[in-house]
Amino acid sequence: MNDLINNIRETARQLLTDGKVDVVIGYEKGSLPLKATPCFVRTPQDVERLIWDATCENNLATYVAQTAGKKAIVAKGCDSRALVVLMQENQVVRDDLYIIGVSCQGVINKKIIEIQTGEIIEATITDGKISVKGMEGSKEFSFAEVKDATCQTCRYPNPVIEDIHLGGTVNVSQSTPFADVIEMENKSDSERQAYFNEQMSKCIRCYACRNACPMCYCPECFVDCNSPKWLTGGVDRSENLMFQAGRVLHLAGRCVDCGACTRACPQGVDIRAMNRKSAKDVLVMYNHEAGISEDIQPALNVYSADDPEAFLVKE
Ligand code: SF4
Ligand code: SF4
Ligand code: SF4
Q1: Atom in ligand 3 nearest the alpha carbon of residue 257
Q2: Among 28, 210, 217, 245, whose CB has the most other CB atoms within 10 angstroms?
Q3: 157 CA: nearest ligand 1 atom
Q4: pLDDT digits 0-9 by tens, 260-294
Q5: Biggest alpha carbon distance in the chain?
Q6: Minimum CA distance residue for ligand 2 atom 3
Q7: How far, in Å, from the CA of 191 to the mean position of ligand 2?
Q8: pLDDT at residue 175 in the model
Q9: Alpha-carbon distance 28 to 49, whole Å?
Q10: Residue 313's pLDDT is what?
Q11: How far is the CA of 257 from the centre of ligand 1 (A)?
């Protein structure tokens, strides 16, 4: 048991014992290898369920608005950014929330492993090495090899808002911001079209991406709307694109690049490529990054006379 897990459990135990919160939202060991699952701890005895490691991949901010009462939440950098956006959008009341901030070294993307081992049967993590027994073979990986793409370039691994900080802090990635987007922008129109056609052809519109996203909280998503009916129940490439394009636009200036949507996708669709392009454009045009400060209003919530309006002007 590492000190950080002990500290998370002790903090949760104290908060529940003192009656400061009704529930602690954290992670527990999941039923599948290398997959922690969100858990809701309501009694001091139950805090032993809480864990913390590189399998804690969900963005727990997704569950805050739906959980009644005063709550504490274990928050890594991207969870904390999502909480900031949710507070700015009046979905979460700050006074009802106690944020247990934990710096994050990144999370494992199981898909990277399963490409090489087939479905994972058993796995252990020891001293930064991940040993996997899969349906098609066994292999040992370093953490760097299986770290999710979003974590490779994460600029906010340390919580941006917290009531207590547990563990140390993590050095911020020095990689060129948005290098992946720039690479995509440098492709020709036909190359980009071919790439996104391929991605949209893979989508089965299961909506796992939407459901994993802390920012997708509309009581009725436009895809489920009957009047007007934007999409049929069928799956085809153009409707899949309509869904993802709608989602990207709704997430402009709000997506915190946690990668939860991409990791949740059973089809390996590169959802992140579209959200990252949107995030870069919002940064370039409005000098805004989602959820990095409570004091900075979301780009699309405010109007400034200096805002670029090229789309309104016909030359
Ligand atoms: S993006 Fe990855 S590294 Fe950054 S805080 Fe989230 S899980 Fe951790
Ligand atoms: S999770 Fe993947 S397959 Fe499911 S709707 Fe989203 S992009 Fe499509
Ligand atoms: S769109 Fe994906 S990366 Fe962005 S906040 Fe939602 S789950 Fe996270």
Answers
A1: 3
A2: 210
A3: 5
A4: 999 999 999 999 999 999 999 999 988 999 999 99
A5: 67
A6: 203
A7: 22
A8: 82
A9: 6
A10: 59
A11: 8
Q: Provide the pLDDT for residue 31.
A: 96
pLDDT at 41: 98
- C-beta separation of 297 from 264 below 8 A: no
Tokens of 106: 């990144």
Exposure string of 42-58, with b = 16+ CB inside 10 Å and e = fewer, is eebebbebbbbbbbbbb
CA of residue 30 relative to chain centroid, distance:
18
pLDDT of residue 315: 54
> Ligand 2: which residues within 6 Å by Cβ?
203-209, 264-265, 267, 269, 271
Distance 106 CA to ligand 1 centre (A): 5
- The Cα-based distances of 276 to 19, 103, 153, 169, 299 in angstroms read 41, 22, 11, 25, 16
Q: Which ligand lies nearest the alpha carbon of 214?
A: 3
For residue 267, the CA-to-ligand 2 centroid distance in Å is 7
Q: Is 40 exposed, middle or buried (0-12, 13-18, 19+ CB in 10 A)?
A: middle
Distance, CA of 177 to CA of 155 (rounded, Å): 9
Angstrom distance (rounded) from CA 130 to CA 140: 6
Q: Which atom of ligand 2 is nearest to the CA of 264?
A: 1
Whether the CB of 73 sits within 6 Å of ligand 3:
no
pLDDT tens digit sequence for 185-240 = 999 999 999 999 999 999 999 999 999 999 999 999 988 888 888 888 888 999 99
Pocket lining: 261 vs ligand 3, CB cutoff 6 Å: yes
E-assigned strand segments in 127-254:
129-134, 137-142, 164-166
